[in-house]
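Hi, here's the filled form for the chain we discussed.

Project: internal
Contact: R.S.
Residues: 282
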Amino acid sequence: MKNFLTPQELAKSFVAVGEAKAKNSAIKLFVLGILAGCFIGFAAHLATVVGTGWTIGGAPALFGLKKFFIGAVFSTGLMLVIIPGSELFTGNNLMSIALLNHNISLGKLLRNWGIVFVGNFVGSIFLAWMFARMSGLTNGPIGGTAIAIAAGKVSAIDGHNLQFFFRAIGCNWLVCLAVMMAAAAQDIGGKILAIFFPIMAFVTSGFEHIVANMYFIPAGIFSKHFDKAIEASGKTPEVLAGLNWEAMITQNFITVTLGNIVGGAVFCGCVYWWIYVKETKK
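And the returned structure, exactly as it came back:
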């Protein structure tokens, strides 16, 4: 018996998925969005821990292998989002399929995206506050890693926002492919494998995910409260000063959000609607 959906069946199924998501109540979307933010936060914290301590003789070492392991463990986040069920802004960019098919309105689409985006941020920043500020886990090398990750995401170098826009496109192209592949699989093992490889690929490649950054950047900012974390980060006072809430918005969130929408809604959703749904629409 077939235990997967064909590409055409899969693309068509996202018309109904988009309709259902558009009909959810605001409070349900918000709570499910908070859960997804928390789940991605768990994975981001795990990735921070795994990314700590890769040195030989005090110098960074095994860069590619380190990135691979970070990507491997980060895939846990989307598994938690999809299998138990929650609402993730980047995955919901696939609602563009239902929009193009005229099954939902632009207003319904933006309502879903807006509520879920805010819910994701609430969940992510709560996890960042809990782990990076209150738990004591980042008062040392892990905090140094958190600061280093966050500082790299709000860099003020020339071309930063343009670079991150294209990194964000690549990211959500892969994330939405992972969401679609997981939906195509009809058993838990298949869903886990379908999620693992695209998510591992985007993290290892250095792409940018807005909901992950909703954890990573606040976690770095919160970790600045600890002297041991600041020392472990090796960052200059100028870099540390540049890691702040304003930079989070202007140097990351706006650009990465737009890039994620292009990667997910256009490069994935629109393309698969055009290939598999448009010509068969009655």
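Let me know if anything looks off before we file it.
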